[in-house]
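User: Predict the complex.
Assistant: Input components as received:
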Amino acid sequence: MGIRGGLGRLGLLAATVAVLILLYVPLSLVIAYAFNTSGTQAWPPSGFTLHWIEEALANTGLKDAFMTSVGAALGATAVAIVLGSLAALAVSRHRFFGRETVSLLLLLPISLPGVVTGMALSTTFATTDIPLGLMAIVIGHSTFCVVLVYNNVLARMRRVSGSLEEASADLGADSFQTFRYVTFPAMRSAILAGALLAFALSFDEIIVTIFVAGGVKTLPVWIFQSFRLANQVALVNVAGLAAILLSVIPVYIATRITADTGAVGRT
Amino acid sequence: MKIGVATAELAYGRSYRRRLAVGLDRHPRARLALLLGLPLGALIVVYFGSLAVLFLNSFWSRDPFTGHVVREFTLDNFMALGRPLFITVTLRTVGMAAAVTVTCAVLAFPIAYYMARIASPRLRGALVVAVLTPLWASYVIKAYSWRLILSEEGVLNWLLGPIGLRGPGYGEIGLWLVFTYLWLPYMILPVFAGLLRIPSSVVEASADLGARGWTTFRHVVLPLAFPAVVAGSIFTFSLTLGDYIAPGLVTRGQQFIGNLILSNFGIPDLPLAAAQSLVPLAIMIVYLLIARRLGAFEAL
């Protein structure tokens, strides 16, 4: 160990705890505000109420935004599952020129600034007369969701020996049968984990979304457009609670699924 | 393998699906093309195609009367990039991205070190989940939560008030705090992974050769973990560069590249916005090339 002294160790523990507090206090605050009687930004909360949750459930704008986000996320996830799995199979089971470049290319949409991706897609849609809206959001989100499924499936396939597939072929199975009975069962849970991450990322995305949404409102867009309106502040907190739950729960499940590989990062 | 294929062919040779399967078994290149064609084709057409269209648009102009895009070559948009306002905004944005990146690295190192080299495997697993969860929790809500924290009657002033201090309020300092908070997990996780990869034997060897804890850290651990820090910095830097939501939430109208592009996008002056968005793109490409030189891609 680089730092042996008990004092150093204690300092590191203190720093760890401090960072964890920093990471969790802001999120807890939004959750606390969602149940705050007063419905303003003032701290401390004046009391506990479920009133805002009832009000949020009755708000059609908020409900529509929520359903739009679910729809966009499901669409982007479906595309990511197909494209990500195919690319991961190609890279893990074949040798070819430029194989290393594939990972890099797939990583690019998620590592370039969001405003660039948003502008590029929006300009392209405008130039080619493709209408903005839900479909455009799905296409936009897909570009950076693919890599999440890809990385998870690739990590899995690198640990599953190719000899299983060869054995299947030796026993007379053709490519499709081997895929159905050997390869797919091996990659299934990795696809699920990647898909959950893709869903969470798409559900939350706003930077690219605003550029391609046209007039369509996803939940993050609704939140961003409502926080300044005094009569909506309380509802924004409830929407925040929903947004936190719908991104954290899929990711938590994904971490359980891939606990052995630790492949749950955005990279 | 050949025998298996031959038997299969005898049994099912007539079915179309079967023939295709046998063909794929025999021609791994065809199989590869089928697997890779769709994802790579889609990525190249949609993403790189879009970047190309963006580039093309930046040479066009906007008709001031109709607002339509005029598809004739001009360098006007690039001339506009030289205006003092745009240069100031660019420098402010890059400065912010650099400050946020350095702060994230400093804050991430101790916790990443604790996770990788001190915590028991069980605690380590729990800590990884504890860092991952806020990374994925709703981005816009995380940014918005700081609006609550930094507001005049918010938590920070409530906490600092009794000891006679005040929070920074909405502004650049506040924004720096928000970005640091937002991207910190993106730095912690790669640094943690990088520290985890350093073999204990290397650290022990350094100690055996007489190095004290700090010397070992300075001359062994830090250089070995540096590529991982650079890997994390790709995210903290790029995410700050391309963000316009957080400035909208917690500043009093200070402009950053993202806001400027969005406002020109809304006018709409797509060609100017296109030329402006080539600036963060170029900065990020240079950043990625340097990062690759420093070995960051192996640490991703």
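Chain B has a mean pLDDT of 90.
Let me know if you want any component modeled separately.
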